[in-house]
């Protein structure tokens, strides 16, 4: 049986797409999920202290608002609970095929359908495909020499081993990014010693955390429009931050000053402050939002190591100064394999063209969702859709609605497929890269936003409002519309 749509992934993007399809009267779709449960990155990231650095009001869908968030910034448990609530509320479980891992996509031009192969040997066919597997789905280990020689316990932040008790242990943490600054304060509470191996310090801003009072939850439940108003207020507050985080301005300098003030307040040792002060423009790397990281580093049982790691050895980590640090466990807070080049599995389009080959030097798309030569294929978290200042779900929601609009157009016009034009895609990406050249994320530091040769396939160079405006219209002249053959 040919489905109207196959959705790859049952995380935020996949479930959001399913909800919007159902709300638009499209029911003949299936969600394929390689795991045995929903949740995506929030299912996988259950490390101690795991939380979101975007306020919960904004880290949720506008079409599925949750009035019962317990606090301003929610932990992974509450976010996963919200995801599971969406599954039940919108009756999505019956559409999901669990333990089904996609291994290849191939487009049949004559039939106008995609063939979706899986590791389990099952094949799906569909008119359209929404790729919602997410960029933060494959844990990344750093290319450190001697990785296979270490004999102690190893844990990746995205694959946390809850059976391992760090109490009284000597623990090393490699990495000082968004996951690490949440893990380290928790480890310091119980471990005998925590050694933090830092490659590059980041800009840290305080988190304005609060607990949601019961009267506030009742208000949102009884009068949902009040939550929508509050959500818009949070949105515009973050939108204002773009003036300092997307482009280097006087506000960037002010944000850096606020970060330095927090560092001075929370770290009294002058030498440690120097080691924790970034030497790049705020916004060039992901901003860190935490109240607990600096105080944890200042604890007696915590030590910051800034010498580069030379190699792992059987008993621990040897740094470039020749010191061997013996530890019982190593935590790799080293992020994910974000697909800036190539594809997570082979994708074959018109005339046998390979998306992996075309993206070998850097991913690109039209409006981050469509790629010329790959009809009826829609990306979420596609190239150049990353926000540096606002909620990823705001951008994701716009991508989902764009894909649903295109799918409805296929049905309304009785089309075989829609394929974005090469010239429209080229013009769009030339404009994106020109705009990126003026942004903080292209200001010279090394980050996961960029490929090894400096191409930015990740970030969007503007306000969220600009992105939403870009996605609000399916501009038909930018697509080849191929009609179905008449009987």
TrEMBL record:
The keyword S-adenosyl-L-methionine does not apply. PANTHER family: FAD_NAD(P)-BINDING DOMAIN-CONTAINING PROTEIN-RELATED, L-ORNITHINE N(5)-MONOOXYGENASE-RELATED. Keywords: FAD, Flavoprotein, Oxidoreductase. Pfam families: FMO-like. This is NAD(P)/FAD-dependent oxidoreductase. The keyword Flavoprotein applies. Belongs to the FAD-binding monooxygenase family. It comes from Mycobacterium hippophais. SUPFAM superfamilies: FAD/NAD(P)-binding domain. InterPro entries: FAD-bind_Monooxygenase_sf (IPR051209), FAD/NAD-bd_sf (IPR036188), Flavin_mOase-like (IPR020946).
